[in-house]
Amino acid sequence: MISVPFLAVVALILMGLSVVIFKRNLIKIVMGIQVIGSGVNLFLIALGYREGTIAPIFTNASKLEMSLPVPQSLTLTSIVINVAVLALMLSFVIFIYKHYASLDTHERRLKE
Amino acid sequence: MNFKILILGVLCAFFLVAVLSIHPFGKPSNTEMDDYFIQNGQVETGSNNIVASVLFDYRGMDTIGEATLLFAAASGIFIVFRGKKNE
Amino acid sequence: MNKERGMSRIVKTVTCILSIPITIFGLYIILHGHLTPGGGFAGGAIIATLVALFLISFGSVKLPEKSLSVLESLGLVAFIILAFIGLSTSFFHNFLANSNGLFGSSVSFGSNSGFLNTGGIIPLMNLAVGLEVFSALSLILLLMFKGDIND
């Protein structure tokens, strides 16, 4: 049948996407973007698994069959990029709240 | 409101078709590059951790881009919280 | 002001006691990045949680922002200079691996129990990236906390 980790990735991305589309509060939208990022990280790790292997580290290794090391490096980079983008998004939300005193995305804010 | 639900439904169908046509979990398809890294990474770079040697030696350009991005994010936040200058 | 924002005396004492093991643990993870999982990014994040702990339990941290910016720039410039040294062969050439110099012993293929002297320029790069990640995350935390007070 279908494998479970890839179904979990689809569920995570769809849940994050529905939060970004349907919610009005800015902080909830930021949280939805982070859930999408976590789903993408899980997808990258799940792509690089071989059956019956261990992690690709030779220190006290029990056997010599190892899973693929390249998707794990890409996931490390992706995690750090998600943290940087989250910090920048949250500082913009603080700035918006200081100037307009509201976090609702359906209000009109630009002065005509 | 109906338009948003329609878009989500179409995306859900796309994702389910993609999950059905991907390789099964545990049997990756093209592994020549990773097999080369596992066989020769320890002797060429001298480190036991192949993920670190891929991240810092074989694909170091991605790490330079990531470090620069972290630096740019920190300086962007510095600009947002600078406050008004007293003239 | 500052006396209201901190937490109780037990929390402050435990924070001061815990700062030494956390720093040693973070430096261990950074330095052994070529032997065990971890590396520069995870170790830098571990030491940055110390700044968050001090911010919550004491109410303010006496780290000047200018020196944090200088440290962060130093880490990034050291990383780029390490990439440029071996330019006669290629960009990012590992000129210290298998050379019997600093960090230059050779390793044979197979499972062994980890020697610190190996790895080439990978431990030096781990140190530079760890310094940069710690400074960037502490700077972000300090700026967001200070911007909250000034209102």
- Principal-axis shape of chain C equals elongated
| Unreliably modeled segments of chain B | none
Helix content of chain B: over 70%
Strand content of chain C is: under 5%
Radius of gyration of chain B: 23 Å
Major β-sheet of chain C, in short? none
Distance between the termini of chain B: 49 Å
Contiguous helical run count of chain B: 4
Number of strands of chain B: 0
Alpha-beta classification of chain B: mainly alpha
From the spread of the alpha carbons, the general shape of chain B counts as: flat
Structural class by SSE content of chain C: mainly alpha
What does this protein look like?
- The complex is a heterotrimer of chains A (112), B (87) and C (151).
- Chain A is built from 3 helices and no strands.
- Chain A has 112 residues and is mainly α.
- Chain A has a single domain, classed as Helix Hairpins (Orthogonal Bundle).
- Chain A is elongated and about 65 Å long.
- The model of chain A has no long low-confidence stretch (mean pLDDT 91).
- With 87 residues, chain B is mainly alpha-helical.
- The longest helix of chain B has 21 residues, at 60-80.
- Chain B has one domain (2-80).
- Chain C has 151 residues and is mainly alpha-helical.
- Chain C has one domain (2-149).
- In chain C, helix 3 packs parallel to helix 5 (122-149).
- The radius of gyration of chain C is 19 Å and the shape is elongated.
- Chain C starts with a helix and ends with a helix.
- The mean pLDDT of chain C is 88.
- The interface between A and C is medium-sized, with 17 and 18 residues.
Key words describing this protein structure:
heterotrimer, A: 112 residues, mainly alpha, Helix Hairpins, 3 helices, B: 87 residues, 4 helices, 72% helix, 0% strand, flat
Can you lay out the helices and strands and say which pair or pack?
The complex is a heterotrimer of chains A (112), B (87) and C (151).
Chain A: H1 4-22, H2 26-47, H3 70-100
Helix pairs in contact in A: 1-2, 2-3
Chain B: H1 2-20, H2 32-45, H3 50-58, H4 60-80
Helix pairs in contact in B: 2-3, 3-4
Chain C: H1 2-5, H2 9-31, H3 40-58, H4 65-84, H5 122-149
Helix pairs in contact in C: 2-3, 3-5, 4-5
Kindly summarize this structure in a few lines.
The complex is a heterotrimer of chains A (112), B (87) and C (151). With 112 residues, chain A is mostly helical. Helices cover 64% and strands 0% of the residues of chain A.
